[in-house]
Amino acid sequence: MNSNLYGLVAEFNNPDDLLRAARAVREAGYRKVEAYTPFPVHGLSEALEIHDWRMPWLIFLGGVTGCVFGFLMQWYTAVIDYPWNIGGKPYNSWPQFIPITYECTILFAGLTAFFATIFLNGLPRPHHPIFNAPRFERATSDLFFLCIEADDGMFDREGTEEFLRGLGAQLVSEVEK
Amino acid sequence: MDNETSIQSSSSAPENPAIAGLIEGDQTFETVTERIVSVVLSQSKHKLPWWIMTAIGFLLFNVLGISLTYLVFKGVGIWGINQPVSWGWAIINFVWWIGIGHAGTLISAFLALMRQQWRASINRFAEAMTIFAVMCAGIFPALHTGRPWVDYWMFPLPNILAMWPQWRSPLMWDVFAVGTYFTISVLFWFLGLVPDFATVRDRAENPIIKYVYAVLSLGWRGAASHWERFETAYLILAGLSTPLVLSVHSVVSFDFSVGIVSGWHATIFPPYFVAGALYAGFAMVIMLAIPLRVWYHLEDYVTMKHFDWMAKMMLTSGLIVFYGYIMECFFAYFGGDYFDRRMMEFRQFGPYGWAYWVLILTNCIIPQALWLPWVRRNLNWLFFISVVISIGMWFERYVIVAVSLTRQFLPATWGYYTNTIWDVLVYLGTFGLFTFFFFLFVRFAPMISVFEMRDLVWRRFHFGHHGHESETTEMEHTTGTAEA
């Protein structure tokens, strides 16, 4: 058993073939599967049963934090710390605090959305074993890849390769770590 | 070389009606990638027009630097502002530039939410336009303060005076609105660029170029789990950006409408400003799209259908702006407030009357030509009308700012406003910043979203039942033949 093996990768030249293959691979019981595509393929995340539920919640939390922070910042400074009579308005002039609260909500939510995507994706990451796959530089242009990792429970060097070949891949190859 | 599977069928195949007309010619994943990314990877694709625009931009950018330095050194007295018109070209230019930025966000964010496919080829450079427009706009609030070196007082930083910003002022709301808008725009734009930078990285041959784009792409590898998070974030950012656009220009309009100045204190200002922003913004997008598609051979991606629809968006927002003008007249003449009525009379027949009628001509009359389909599809006329609208929208802010301030409540305070050469130079300088940065963007980043174009290429001929095999016709499937 080659301990330097990251996995087996199948290459396709169109998203439909990849989608079919992805479904077949999941149905066969493989779990450590990843696909690599040059654009987001509709239906692929359902086929691979990928859904990161943390994203929407994190972003929501970010927005709530922004809202609370924006309002508290204004309330504390204008009501507690240095209250000042502006145009005869009450110190806690909450209608006038709304625009900034609103903007802070959006700012924090947006920042969370961006950084959550990057960091939950494990990026920035200069190197990954999949870059060793042949022709992988075309994964960002016109080729679609499906990779079954070697530490998947059902992985078998010959059996998995035969299975992948039967799925309509135009090339199946090993990926070194 | 592996056989080039026809990703698209022959011309007899049915085209997806949702995408027909948005992408033309025989396109494959490779052709769209090559056409757009090759522009980034070779200087030879940038011919004389790029050099001229970049040179002019750089020149004017330096004019900006000189003017701003002199401004900080001498003070805002070098501008024509005085009593009673203490807000002049600076605020006009600020509102003008911010307004232009809004169309980019609308195209990027709002059309994404509405699942409008026609945004695919225009959203990247429209978002870039937004970012550079907001940069230009931000110069004015920062430098129109009499003492720009204490601008940090606008932020809630603890200081030895124990003072805090005055939260109840629209000018403070502007700080947060424009700051948030700039930040979110940059994040949204950069997020969309990450996969395309990865494409440039993978196609670059020069090792230094490869390294630079590798860093910019953050190691993106197109993993499905990554795309899933990407799409979630993109959609949510689009959902956040849309109300942000509405709120930012509403807050900008509050700079005027929250005050009591006649001609400013109108509730129609927020929606009317937002519509005006989109109006000028679409004009700018069109003015950028027309030369870019010729210079970089993007006619297959930015098609006449795109221009037709952008022209319709422009016409729609123009009609809302026209309605705004009519309502202002209505409020003034029907409202019963003496000062409002006199303000309207001054606006139309007073010393600035000429500006008002220029405004009506450029914003209301001339753009009605866009009702005609042949005008919308004639790029020369469209460019001309877009220039006219840009000028008109500048005049709108000029009329709003200058007239209302020259004729305030007390006749003793009346005065006339004349700009100085420095007002003009700073404004020209911002054109330099915009042009220079925009053409650097064109040089170094894919100006059309490549991954979205690939999606269009695929779905142009492959559509049908969701989740199942799509209705393809003569597409050849290569079977599992291993290639050497």
Briefly say what this structure is.
The complex is a heterodimer of chains A (177) and B (484). By secondary structure, chain A is an alpha+beta fold.
Features:
heterodimer, A: 177 residues, alpha+beta, 5 helices, 46% helix, B: 484 residues, mainly alpha, Formate dehydrogenase/DMSO reductase fold, 0% strand, disordered N terminus, disordered C terminus
Structural write-up:
The complex is a heterodimer of chains A (177) and B (484). Chain A has 177 residues and is α+β, with helices and mostly antiparallel strands. Chain A has one domain. Helices cover 46% and strands 14% of the residues of chain A. Chain A contains 5 helices and 4 strands; from the N terminus they run βαβαααβαβ. Chain A has a 4-stranded antiparallel sheet with strand order 2-3-1-4, with helices on one face. In chain A, helix 3 runs antiparallel to helix 4. Chain A is rod-shaped. The model of chain A has no long low-confidence stretch (mean pLDDT 93). Chain B has a single domain, classed as Formate dehydrogenase/DMSO reductase domain (Formate dehydrogenase/DMSO reductase fold), CATH 1.20.1630. In chain B, helix 7 packs across helix 8 and helix 9 packs across helix 10. Chain B is globular and about 75 Å long. The N terminus and C terminus of chain B are likely disordered. Chain B is built from 15 helices and no strands. With 484 residues, chain B is mostly helical.
